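Hi R.,

Here's the chain you asked about this morning:
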Amino acid sequence: MRRRQFIKLLGGVGLWPLSATAQQPQRVRQVGVLMSYLESETEAQDWVRVFVQELEARGWRDGTNLKLHYRWRGAHPEVLRANAAELAGLGLDAMLAGATPAAVALKRATQSVPVVFANVADPVGQSLVASLKEPGGNMTGFGAFEFSIAGKWVQGLKELVPSARQFGIIVNPETAPFYRKFLPFIEEASQQAGIVPHLIPIENVDQIVNTIEQLAKQTQGVVVFPGAQFTTNKDLIVRTIARIGIPAMYSYTFWVTAGGLISYGFEPNDMFRRAAGYIDVILKGTRVQELPVQHPTQFQLAINLKTAGALGITVPDTLLARADQVIE
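And the predicted structure, written out as tokens:
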């Protein structure tokens, strides 16, 4: 072989290692999931499942190009805060905050890791974001209720119990940063409906049964405000209300499928699906500040006819006609 040809051949051989190393394996992205609920809760597991399924539909698979780190509420609030701090220290690429307590905990834990929240009430009022259009900071996501919906809760329950004169309104003080913004609409709707509302706080699970029993002695209906602690104790609340035999309005369809009488609110599954879309584009390079906070656009009215029958309530045809889901 001539010297010139040999040198040319060596040059060609030298190119192969460079070409091979140019295609590095894709970096596995690290995403945290902090939920404001107990790990044993069926609904919370469903929401996480929807979130993961949407990520998979967008090409992200846990154990392949993605590693998901799950943390849950625990029995006490300090567990949630500790889990938030732990996730913040893992050097993650992004995090999902499931509901308000998780979002607040992550806001305190990190100012740098991108956080997408789902099912969070009043993110501006709670200082999670600067504004809906331009969130700023490291958080964005999907807000929960428009506060005017509280008037619909009173109106819907009044339609079922037209003779009612007093309603109990149960709230969890853990949601104090936002639940008070529902109250002007509760007051306005109550005045129009001829209802006297009684606002009663429930701070822990030990107070649930006694509080509802006391309300039943002086009111003809109960509105259960949204809140992670109430969701965690959903079965206890529904059982207690059924045993006492008092009509109740809830904020999510899953309360009605669990035996509650009536609910009006948005579909959380859709919110967690959309949150996965935000995580996807963040992992692909979009800055969290470029993603506006969005609110639900579709709401569902659900009625449980079996529960209505047990309470001796005849559901008006006008209300049935507006229902998106009727459980028989």
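DSSP finds 14 helices and twelve strands in the chain.

Let me know if you need anything else.
M.
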